[in-house]
Each structure stands twice: as structure tokens, then as C-alpha cells.
Amino acid sequence: MKISLPVLPLITIVLGAQLMACSDESVTVAVAPDISGQSTVYPYSEGDDIPALAYMAHDEIYNPESVIPPQCYTKTNGKNNPCYACHQSYDRSENRPNQMGDGTLQGNYEFSDVGLTNSWKNLFVDRRQLIKDISDDEILAYIEQDNYSAALSGKPGSEHRLPDAMHLEQLSYPQQAFGEHGIAKDGSGWVAYNYKPFPSTFWPTNGSTGDAMIRLPSVFQQRNGKYVEDVYLANLTLVEMALKDVNQLAVPNLNEQAIGLDINGDGELTTAVKVMQRRDNYLGDASATELSFLLYPEGTELLHTVRYIGVDDNGQIYNAPRMKEVRYMQKALFRSKESLASAYYAEAKDKAFEKLPQTRYLNQETGIDNGFGWTLNAFIEDANGDLRPQHPQELAYCNGCHKTVGSTFDQTFSFARKVPGTKGWGYINLREIADVPNINEQDGEFLTYMQRVGGGDEFRQNAEMLARWFNDDGSVNDEKVKQADSVYELITPSPQRALALNKAYQTIVKEQSYLFGRDATITEARNVLEVIDAEQPPLLPEHRHAWDMRLDWFANSEHNVASNAAPN
Q1: CA distance 20 to 347
Q2: Is the pLDDT of residue 3 over 70?
Q3: Which helix (H) or strand (E) holds 504?
């Protein structure tokens, strides 16, 4: 029998369990009958500060609206708009498979009654006292430890072993894991790509570093049953074309004779093609599969690690070996645009009938089903720093971004933001990325974001970003931002801030309090609402924005997309 733990302001009653507060001297406990009618004593009652692990241990839902991320509770003051980066509606003539159309959320709170109360209470913890006794040397030693490789061994299905699909040898050390064009050296088929981090949760200055890899099914890697690297790179390029809706891209000197097809449209089969044209079908053994507008082919896998912020001896920021999370998605079922439309309709219908979100948990190997063809799984640090499977309640958080958000492309973010063509095949490198604008925008994306938000993070409390890039009157120093050499300069923290963020997150790991929030805020959030007033619009009309998260990589260049080739 599930036992309901007290939750303020309401005690949930499950299967008829009746909770009674009783007192034994100074200890308050909760009592509930088990299936035999006998009473079981629990050390919690209404009003207690119940740890996150207790909710998971008793399979009691702490936050039924965990799909509403912490950022949605930001105080906007009617003008500070971080909301536009997720919530977008597009003209129907674009014929996008993503039919969420949630741009109205920039001007209207459409939360359930439960969602009106902010359950992300880790935002309201001042962690300065918690981290004051953690030395710099201690945290540096901790983040340099490789906790990923240990999770590759052990028996399948064991508590601390990653599922086989999430294996990539030497991933903690990218320079050892990937070869030319980002292809994994272990033969796993994973390919790393360089992409512009999504604003601003994924900026290192706001807590974490990260990376992303893609893998296509074996038929996309082969011709006549044999692996052919040129076939694989050509098919990956076609996926990029489908997701970005472009007609040509640079490729790394592909051999058309090895591929068996003319891919640049010149009518010949040459051995060093640098530009590829879009086509209707994929290549090699996947030739029967058609490209689908803004959709990945069935079987596509994505791997994403969230890491601590590394600081080297010169104070430079990099992706630390220690991983906070290993996240994985697989497109288990291809759903057409028409099929996806029915899924969006069902989602809207449930919301109209005020039904709370449902997350379908499958198993430890597979994770959860997002209802749109994808399964999502993730491992996270346990209290000792070892990677463990996330509890279904912790995984439900993933659906907040990878289910029904208007800005996504096939429920994903990073691949549509990949540096185009040849230069984008390789491990993430922020120094190689300029602050290019989004499609249909004029200024750089990160500059525009800071202007619209009024800060360097959604909560507008990253003091270092405010000091670096903002004027005394609160406006952005546009010229200074435009002079940055790369996004590395814009969005990486000082060594001091990096270490403080690492320490703050480590306290959450020790608590295992992920259900209460994973944002590594150092001080208590000031610009975050604890309770939403649904009658108060988040943003005034003049501060709402249309936006496409894809990037205009050549806005300041006479070159087209196809010119983005790596040097010979």
C-alpha cells in the first residue's frame, strides 16, 4: 500500500490510508494502516520538512506539476521576458510538426491550481553557509573525478550501471573519446556536434557545462551491410538539413564513389565532395527512408551530459570530467505530422479538462515515454557522487522541456542549433562560436536575450553577468557585448564563481533533494514568485516576442550555408 506523506498545504489520501498525528514525548510521527490493518509508524507529520528521498521511498508524488520548470515562476515585472525562449506560436503556413502554439503563455498564466504554488523550494535556500567549509581544493578534486566510466561496468540492470545505449568509452575526457568529425573512437556510432547553448539555463555562468551527441541506426551508417563513414556523415548531414530546413550544407570531402551516389548534383561521382545537396531519401542501406520536414528518422538517439564547471590552472573554463547527469533520448516511434497533431490535441484537451500531467514510466533501462514518439532516460549523482538511475518523479521533470514546448524541433533543442556543416561536427567548443543572431533577428542572440530579460539569467540575480555586461542604469552595454570574441567570453564564469556554483550544487547532491530543484543558486532567489497570481499577466503586450531558436549563422557574411567547411 502507498502511504501518503504529509504535503503542505494538503495531505494526499491514497487508497484509503488515514494519517493521524500522534505524539510520543517530543517526537511527532504519522501512523497509517498497512494492508493487514496494522499500523505503521512514519517519522513525519503535516508541517514537517520532509526530505525528497522520503517521497520517492514511499512513491508519493511531491510535485504533480514538475513539468513546470523553476524558470516559469520568475518575476517579470511586466517587462523582463525570459519566457519567449520556450513559449512560441508559429504561422500555420509554416506547416511545422510542432503545433504546441504556446506563445500565449508570455501573456497569460495557464497553470493548474496545483501549479500556481512554486514547489521548487531549493530556489529559496541561501547556500553560502552550506558551502563556506568546502575548500577550493576539495571541490576541484571532486569535479576532476570520472564518475561516468565506473557506470559503464557491472551487471546490466544494476543500480549503478548505465544502460548499454548510454555507453561511450572515455566520454569523461572528450579529447580521448572523439576522433575526426566528432565520431566516437569506440565504434559506438555516437557523433559529437558543436552547438550554441540554449539561453540561459545552459550557460556555464549559470551552473553547468554540457555537451551533446547524436547516433543514427546502423542502416544509416552502412552500404550493403558494411559500415562506410562517408555514408554515415552524408546521412547525418541530411538529418541536419531536415531539422533546419536548408537545401545544402558543407561536408568533409566525402567520397561519392564510396557512397555510390552523386550528392553534390554535378552529375559525376568524385572522391572529394565539399558540398551536399538536399534529397528526398537518405543514403546507403537507409535509402528507403524519406526525409521528413523538421523531424528525425525513427531510431535516432541523442546523448547529453550535464557536467560541473571545470577550472584549469590558468583559470580557463572547460567541461569537467565529473558528470551531474547523463541524459538520453531515443526516437522509439516515428510519428507523422498528422499523428503528432493528434498528440498535441490530446494534450490540450487534458489541460482544458484540468487534468494534471501524466508521465508514463517504462523501466530503468528505457525511462519514460513522452507521448510523442520519444523515450527519455537519465542518471544522476547519488549522495556519494556515483551515477544512479533517476526515480520516475525525477524523470518526470524531463517532460517539462521535451514534450510540449512551442520552441522545440521534434521535442529537442540542441541539434537545430548546431554549427552548420563540416565545422559543426566535433565536440562542443564555445570559443569557435560567435554570438550570431536568430533567424529573423538583427542583433546577436545572447545580446538580444540579455536586453529582453534584463539580466544574464532568467532570475536576474547573476551579479557577475550584471557587472560584466550591464550599465549602472540596468541597461545592457551593447557595444561591449558585441566586441566579445566568442560566446565563451560572454557566458563562462570567473574561476571564483565557477567554484562557488560547483560547491552549491554539491550540497544538493548530498541532500539528494533534486525533487525540490536542481538549479545551483548560491543565494536565495529574489526575483522568483512563491505563489502565482493568475489574474496578473506575466508580460505586457509590447514585451512579448516572436522567436525562432534556429540561428542565422551567416547574417554578417556574404557566404551561404554551404561555405561552412573546415579548412583543408
Answers
A1: 37
A2: no
A3: helix 495-511
- Provide the mean pLDDT of the chain: 91
What the block records as the C-alpha cell of 314 is: 590558468
List the one residue out of 242, 244, 222 whose CA is nearest residue 233. 222
CB 346 within 8 A of CB 353: no
User: Global pTM?
Assistant: 0.92
User: How far is C-alpha 2 from the geometric centre of its chain's CA atoms?
Assistant: 32
pLDDT at site 42: 58
For 4, list phi and psi in degrees, rounded to 5: -80, 120
- Residues 376-387: b if buried by 16+ CB within 10 A, e if exposed: bbbbbbeeebeb
pLDDT(23) > 50: no
> In a 3-state reduction of DSSP, which class is residue 146?
coil
CB of 96 within 8 A of CB of 557?
Answer: no
Ordered DSSP codes for 369-416 = E-SSSEEEEEEEE-TTS-EEEPPHHHHHTTHHHHTS-TT-BTTBSGGG
The 3-state secondary structure of 37-76 reads: CCEEEECCCCCCCCCHHHHHHCCCCCCCCCCCCHHHHECC
373-400 confidence digits (pLDDT tens): 999 999 999 999 999 999 999 999 999 9
> Which of 365, 509, 519 lies closest to 53, judged by CA?
509
**Cβ neighbours of residue 271 closer than 8 Å, sequence gap 6 or more:** 255, 256, 257
β-bridge mates for residue 184, sequence order: 178
3-state helix, strand, coil in the chain (%, to 5): 30, 20, 50
Phi, psi of 238 (to 5 degrees): -65, -35
The DSSP call for residue 102 is -
State the Rg of the chain over Cα.
24
Place of cell 550599465: 471
Task: Give the Å distances, CA to CA, from 388 to 48, 365, 476.
Answer: 27, 12, 42
Instruction: Name beta bridge partners: 290.
Output: 281
CA–CA distance, 68 with 173 (Å, rounded to integer): 33
121 to 131, 268, 380, 516, 522: CA distances (angstroms): 18, 63, 19, 5, 13
The values of phi and psi at residue 114, to 5°, are: -65, -40
